[in-house]
Amino acid sequence: MPRRTVHEVTVQDVQKRRNPSKHYVYLIKVCWSDGSTEVIYRRYSKFFDLQMELLDKFPVEGGQKDPKRRIIPFLPGFPYSITREARRLSLSVSFTPKSPFLS
């Protein structure tokens, strides 16, 4: 049986939550190579942690030696105040892995 890999990741929505404290949660749709999909919920801090891990484990794909070869997308700065425009922009963010190491 072939290994299932990520085909595409898309931010579907941003929700403001107040419990246990005020924070934002991103609803992420993950499309897999076998055609299945899942919706996951993550805070910005989890995206930041993942970004740091990817850049550490994949320095070439992260552009450490040659910035022109970077295929790991840049992570936008934390949205301290989510405006309607910022929310609209976040809904258009998607990521399709371009390296077999990132699938």
Q: In total, how many domains does the architecture comprise?
A: 1
Major sheet attributes: 4 strands, antiparallel
SS-based structural class? alpha+beta
CATH level 1 class label: Alpha Beta
Number of helices: 2
Q: Tell me, rounded to a whole number, the average pLDDT.
A: 80
Rg, Å, rounded: 15 Å
The number of strands is 4
Described by the principal axes of the CA atoms, the overall outline is flat
CATH architecture classification? 2-Layer Sandwich
SSE run: EEEHHE
* First-residue to last-residue Cα separation: 16 Å
GO molecular function, one term: superoxide-generating NADPH oxidase activator activity
Pfam families: PX
GO cellular component, one term: cytoplasm
Protein name: PX domain-containing protein
Give an overview in words.
With 103 residues, the chain is α+β, with helices and mostly antiparallel strands. It has a single domain (6-94), classed as Phox-like domain (PX Domain), CATH 3.30.1520.10. The chain is 21% helix and 30% strand. The protein is built from two helices and four strands. It has helices at 44-57, 84-91, and strands at 6-17, 23-32, 37-43, 94-95. It has a four-stranded antiparallel sheet. A hairpin with a 4-residue loop joins strand 2 and strand 3 (37-43). The chain is flat and about 40 Å long.
Features:
four-stranded antiparallel beta sheet; PX_dom; 103 residues; 21% helix; alpha+beta; PX_dom_sf
